[in-house]
Write a structure and sequence with these properties.
With 176 residues, the protein is an alpha+beta fold. The protein has one domain: Gcn5-related N-acetyltransferase (GNAT) (Aminopeptidase, 3-Layer(aba) Sandwich), CATH 3.40.630.30. The protein is 30% helix and 25% strand. The chain contains five helices and seven strands. Strand 3 and strand 4 form a beta hairpin. The longest helix is centred in the middle third of the chain and has 15 residues. The mean pLDDT is 94.
Length: 176
């Protein structure tokens, strides 16, 4: 059930390690549905978060003590904002925090002149493809993916993530 919305703010340099921990803990849920291979992916590292942080593309949901309980990382692929990662600490799951982070990513895209965002996700995992569809995301056919988004999908395959069906998705934020 949704609780009162948490404030969303830009991440801070000193909390990058904590954000990596949140991602690892959130990914543990994949093992609960038999997708153990997700846990074999490279662990997140703080170095990969520095550039999004520097560019204001790393947003966190902050708990009552201002400690991050979830985050969204926005990259640019093909000049389009791309939700590279969204993760919520398992202790805070099911409270609408992920949806709030996705809305914050949409607001970021609009504020930066974009009319859409993209992401890649597991098609059938309940908190992935079906969840994003409920938030208004649409499946993006592979032949409509730009070269950088297509390269990201190929990289996911090289990491072994295609052991379960994956897809690209798009969210139009210009009123469509």
């Amino acid at each position: 059930m949704d609780a009162a919305p948490l404030p969303i703010r830009e991440a801070r340099l000193g909390e990058l390690g904590h954000l990596c921990d949140i991602e690892v803990l959130a990914d543990d849920a994949f093992a609960s549905i038999g997708l153990h291979f997700v846990l074999d992916s490279p662990l997140p590292d703080t170095d990969s978060l520095v550039e999004p942080l520097r560019r204001g593309r790393l947003l966190v949901a902050a708990g009552s003590d201002d400690r991050a309980v979830g985050f969204v990382r926005i990259d640019l692929l093909d000049g389009v904002p791309h939700v590279e990662q969204v993760a919520v600490h398992p202790d805070h799951a099911g409270r609408g925090i992920g949806a709030a982070l996705m809305r914050a990513a949409e607001a970021w895209a609009l504020a930066h002149g974009a009319d859409r965002l993209t992401l890649t996700t597991f098609r059938d995992v309940p908190w992935n493809g079906p969840y994003y569809e409920r938030l208004g995301w649409l499946v993006l056919p592979d032949d409509e993916a730009g070269p950088e988004l297509a390269a990201a999908r190929r990289h996911e395959g090289q990491l072994g993530l295609d052991q379960a069906p994956r897809q690209c998705m798009v969210r139009f934020v210009d009123g469509r």
